[in-house]
Amino acid sequence: MLVIMKNDATESQVDAVIREIEHLGYRGLPVPGAQRTAVCIVGNQHEVDDSRLLSLEGVKETIRVTKPYKLVSRETHPQPTVITVGPVTIGSGQPVIMAGPCAVESEEQTLAIARIVKRHGAQVFRGGAFKPRSSPYTFQGLGEEGLRILKKVREETGLPVVTEATDHDNIGMVEEYADIIQIGARNMQNYSLLRRAGLCTKPILLKRGFAATIEELLMSAEYIASEGNPNVILCERGIRTFSDNTRNTLDLSAIPSIKEVSHLPVIVDPSHAAGRREYVIALSRGAIAVGADGLLVEVHHDPAHALSDGRQSLYPDQFGQLMRDIKAMSRLSEREK
Amino acid sequence: MLVIMKNDATESQVDAVIREIEHLGYRGLPVPGAQRTAVCIVGNQHEVDDSRLLSLEGVKETIRVTKPYKLVSRETHPQPTVITVGPVTIGSGQPVIMAGPCAVESEEQTLAIARIVKRHGAQVFRGGAFKPRSSPYTFQGLGEEGLRILKKVREETGLPVVTEATDHDNIGMVEEYADIIQIGARNMQNYSLLRRAGLCTKPILLKRGFAATIEELLMSAEYIASEGNPNVILCERGIRTFSDNTRNTLDLSAIPSIKEVSHLPVIVDPSHAAGRREYVIALSRGAIAVGADGLLVEVHHDPAHALSDGRQSLYPDQFGQLMRDIKAMSRLSEREK
Amino acid sequence: MLVIMKNDATESQVDAVIREIEHLGYRGLPVPGAQRTAVCIVGNQHEVDDSRLLSLEGVKETIRVTKPYKLVSRETHPQPTVITVGPVTIGSGQPVIMAGPCAVESEEQTLAIARIVKRHGAQVFRGGAFKPRSSPYTFQGLGEEGLRILKKVREETGLPVVTEATDHDNIGMVEEYADIIQIGARNMQNYSLLRRAGLCTKPILLKRGFAATIEELLMSAEYIASEGNPNVILCERGIRTFSDNTRNTLDLSAIPSIKEVSHLPVIVDPSHAAGRREYVIALSRGAIAVGADGLLVEVHHDPAHALSDGRQSLYPDQFGQLMRDIKAMSRLSEREK
Amino acid sequence: MLVIMKNDATESQVDAVIREIEHLGYRGLPVPGAQRTAVCIVGNQHEVDDSRLLSLEGVKETIRVTKPYKLVSRETHPQPTVITVGPVTIGSGQPVIMAGPCAVESEEQTLAIARIVKRHGAQVFRGGAFKPRSSPYTFQGLGEEGLRILKKVREETGLPVVTEATDHDNIGMVEEYADIIQIGARNMQNYSLLRRAGLCTKPILLKRGFAATIEELLMSAEYIASEGNPNVILCERGIRTFSDNTRNTLDLSAIPSIKEVSHLPVIVDPSHAAGRREYVIALSRGAIAVGADGLLVEVHHDPAHALSDGRQSLYPDQFGQLMRDIKAMSRLSEREK
Q: Which pTM was predicted?
């Protein structure tokens, strides 16, 4: 960390900064410049809490040089993490397609969609039993009944299932039924839920909050890892910007950015980002092309009667097209090796 | 709600839309235009779930005309809500100043600051016992010991206290000790926590998420109100934008916007928005000038040794200046009456 | 257009709205709802100026149903526009790669890079002679000497060249030397320059402003087209968001969004969006995968000594890799046909 | 400037960085840390161009410590700039209210509004003769006829006038007629127009682009100042964010932020930020309360028939209310002195 002094800071103010740094257990190295002095902090192994330094007289700002996350950082763990869920490996180089409806609505609906996505080659089934909805007056999910239906899907199709846990009360139940536990974008900084997820023995699919930076996403993954669960799959699902042509702006540059600094696998949810099925196939191709480890895609056999987010669900034949595109791209990158 | 058809939609597609609207229990009125047809939905008392309509062939988009919130809307409750907490009334026209440290650090520190803010005229004491921090490796608050210290503050100074509940596990405990329960910005869409807050008998201070629209903030307040707790104080605390001169961009236009559509009181937290004490007094004056019902301000007697957010805490004499400014502005608006 | 009345609007206010609509030359159709009345405007062929309507008593808001652009709209011109520049066609289905340095620095440097990008298969050469720089104290480009160098590049390599015009004074000169005239992101709403570009006989490459919506980009293209120049190539180059992992956030969803509503070709500039060469190859693949008609990429044979933006310029061998990736993807989509 | 090396950078890469810094004419001071080395650049009086450094092997990033602007910086010019326009001084401590219609529509309309705003105490008259409009099909202003009308306003009322120049062709003409020349938000980075404004002898009112940082705004002011015109009035008019309750989000924290780093006066345009007259009075009070040197407000005697932006224009009696509020606040701050 670098402490930047104001351009009129006095020598005794610089001295006070150095003393405070020493008090924190590190060493302070003053670097005099033409217009101002900076003080470099050396000797710290962990993040320095800069609150006290920032409050000293004569201090203009601090600049962090080292990232605040550690367990999820590529610097401490250079090899990519590969997560195994039943027959599926995530992060191994081949994209993993997770597909299904936004919400589990009934056994019949869920099994029908599961058969479709399996036939087209999906490797994981997705479907929400607990739905975080912005209005208290809309469908909130089937709860445990939904989880039981997901279990049947796994039994019948052999597909592992991923579904969302929304709070302390249901994460234990979700862990029992699901193969991968999803933490949604709105809960990305629900630290209490993250800590609880860190105690789970199943992998966590952690979605980026729609106003979260990459560093904040990785700090949230660090919460989970620091409690003992190293199996975190990150998911880019669009960020909130002024741009109004899609529901959220899919930030595909997040994929190479995350891979540069972290060893965790990262997938993309084009459905929630776009908010409209018309763009989902193109964005899915884009996601794989930039290097995503997989996709989380909504598919519905009858979107016009879906209980939530029907607008962004692919029709079965569109999902077939998506799978053919992805497979062709995968063969392509295979041949390149 | 208005259903906009594509410009090449067929008559039978328009008919299918009208039939679906009737199936939902409303009436569909087609409005032919030069370039396309729209279908108006009439007869609905509540929000229409447009998922099914959006999935029909020939439909371009839907446009909502009515807001999805009801209990917190000024249309259903024209008189402003006034909330009474001990000797303090919030929303009555006189700004209420809530002040104190970011975190409760010790009994000595907390009482020292409480005496200072009380002497300068603060009406409510603030201080965090449970701290949501983006890094798992930084100070997380004193927990129940912090709550006990806040109780002593109330006993000694007579000031009601506001403190944050961060999850299901601690909201009950917070309710026991505090006079106002704060839900933080990161939990604004933690619907499970909102529902639990709706069961509390104490007022809730609900902070706007840093990427939340006004409508989403009001929908979250609606969650609390729909469970039976009508006493919600909204709080603008800055939104996330590209602008980097402050930690977040304080959106003061939110105050007249909220007052136009809702009857709930709304206060402003200039400390978290600015992230630096240098701007807090100016932004506080601005907040009162646009019509805020109060302020939530951080004050520390020794910011250089604060355990969190010392950078944005006012010095005691700065807080004195702020209180003098606010009082003068209040007298001004009194005289105008 | 739909005029939404306030929920307490009187009948005579609705009547005044209808009279004003008739005064504008259209017909107003009232649609009474449970909570409020809306008035549909029918009979307009062009955009309705809603200023007067919005100022009438009892009016809450207006909602546009038809887009304000016409010439660049796919509704009025369903077939995609294909632009021919010498031997190159843009918008014909095969991606066109435009590559070269950020700035023309010298004849030697420019020709060296031109030979490299030509050898790897680029179809158009890019290089700036007039550089819009945010600081008045940094390199501003070689001006007309730069244009003469670009002419030599074309003569030697046969590659058409694209270069930026920054104002009225230089657009005529740029038109003389260049094959495609670029209008930069900062000038996207410089309407005076857009009108002048509309008088040019050469194609215009119009970059999206970093805070512009798709609709605003298309309105700016409409300015050019309305003056008589239909040959506009749009270019997505990243938008400004809170996300700080790249210089700007590349909005790849803009590609399918634009193609849905407009017939103009659209290319992607991954270099300016990323701001760092490390992400350029991945984002280039992503751009082609979502359907872009081409790329605008910065390449430098000696980025360490580039006079501007060296950080985002690809090394020659990286550009070779990019071209191989793009060609493989193109063959893939060929085979699919 | 600080050059941050990658954590696996070799000693010879650090040496190459130091040599390059020396080659640029400065001194490079290596600062070894626990995880990585940083190199401080010392001895530079001006901004260091970091392009070459960023392109060297082993370099992770650079961090600027000094701001890139100089003439407009408070560090080089600690006293606030006060600008005199006829009888009016801007930046002297008393807020200056500039008011009038969005566009000059006719002599009759303009004089009528001018008499109204003068009677209520406005000190400067505003009105657009050249209108930058996002659609080529809407009213673009009266041009020179509009300027002649503004001249009559000054002759009759004695109010100085401010009006916008939109390009090279009209800035000379605007300079002839107007007392203050406005550069609009969309032209904030039209460097060619900024340079031309720097040659004018009249003050420039420079509006912040709706996606510009404070630093970019100051760099644009630096362009004007560096050509010889030191009289620049900055204007905050809202930034583009996700928030949709107002047209743009008024960033009132920009006022104290700018005043901290620059000596230039700064005013606020609440009308364009809000987009609706309902919020203009509250935001005007807020602007003055945070320390703005003045306001730019739209007023129309007949907004329902305004040719542009009628929705955000105050009625005459609302403007009277605004002036009373501002005067009371000014007396208040007078008394405090």
A: 0.90
Instruction: Check D257 against B279: CB less than 8 A apart.
Output: yes
| pLDDT value of residue A34 | 64
Structure tokens at B61: 């988009």
Cβ–Cβ contact A213 with D under 8 A? no
CB D136 within 8 A of CB D171: no
**Percentage above 70 pLDDT, chain B:** 95
pLDDT digits (tens, 9 = 90+) for D16-31: 999 988 888 888 878 7
Chains in contact with D, where contact requires at least 3 CB pairs less than 8 Å apart? A, B, C
Chains that touch C (3 or more CB pairs under 8 A): A, B, D
Mean pLDDT, chain B, rounded, equals 91
Shortest alpha-carbon distance between residue A332 and chain B (Å): 34
| Domain ranges within chain C, ordered by starting residue | 2-63, 83-336
Q: Is the backbone of residue C294 left (phi > 0), alpha (psi -120 to 50) or beta?
A: left
- Which architecture, in CATH terms, is C2-63? 2-Layer Sandwich (3.30)
Contact D245 B239 (CB under 8 A): no
Q: Do C256 and A289 touch (CB under 8 A)?
A: no
Nearest neighbour of D252 by CB, restricted to B211, B252, B260: B252
Residue whose tokens read 């799959």: A233
Residue A323 touches chain C, beta carbons under 8 Å: no
Amino acid at A177: Y
Chain C residues touching residue D46 (CB < 8 angstroms):
137
**So what CATH class is C83-336?**
alpha beta
User: Across the interface, which of C166, C226, C310 has its CB nearest the CB of D55?
Assistant: C310
Q: Show residues of chain B in contact with A133, CB under 8 Å.
A: 191
* Closest residue in C to A212 (Cα–Cα): C243
**CA pair distance A329, A326, nearest whole angstrom:** 5
**Whole-number average pLDDT of chain A:** 91
> What percentage of residues in chain A have a pLDDT greater than 90?
69
Q: Which residues contact D83 (CB under 8 A, 6 or more apart)?
A: D89, D90, D91, D203, D231, D233, D265
- The token duo for C321 is 């890799």
Q: Which of A241, D273, D288, D208 is nearest to B253 (CA)?
A: D273
- Euclidean distance between CA atoms A169 and C92, whole angstroms: 56
Q: Record the tokens describing residue B226, joined without a space.
A: 């729909």
Q: Measure the CA–CA gap between D98 and D110, rounded to whole angstroms.
A: 14
Determine whether the interchain pair D42/A65 forms a contact, defined as Cβ–Cβ distance below 8 Å: no
Which are the contacts of A278, defined by CB distance < 8 A and separation ≥ 6?
A: C256, C260
Which pLDDT does position B68 carry in this prediction? 78
pLDDT of C302 reads 85
Residues in chain B within 8 Å Cβ distance of D328: 332, 335-336
**Strand pairing category for D27-32 and D37-42:** antiparallel
Instruction: Tell which of B213, B219, B240, B243 to mutate to test the D interface (max D CBs under 10 Å).
Output: B243
Closest CA to B283 of B250, B241, B327, B317: B250
Lowest-pLDDT choice from C281-295, D200-214, D293-307 = D293-307
Q: Inter-chain contact C329–A332, Cβ cutoff 8 Å?
A: yes
Least confident of A121-135, A138-152, B37-51, C217-231: B37-51
A337 part of contact set with chain C, CB < 8 Å: no
**pLDDT for A302:** 85
Distances, alpha carbon A330 to alpha carbons A27, A101, A288, A333, C292, in Å: 51, 25, 8, 5, 20
Q: What is the pLDDT of residues C244-274, one digit of tens each?
A: 999 999 999 999 999 999 999 999 999 999 9
B-chain residues near C63 (CB < 8 A): 2, 63
Q: State residue C292's pLDDT score.
A: 98
Which is more confidently placed, A332 or A208?
A208
A241 CB within 8 Å of a chain D CB: yes
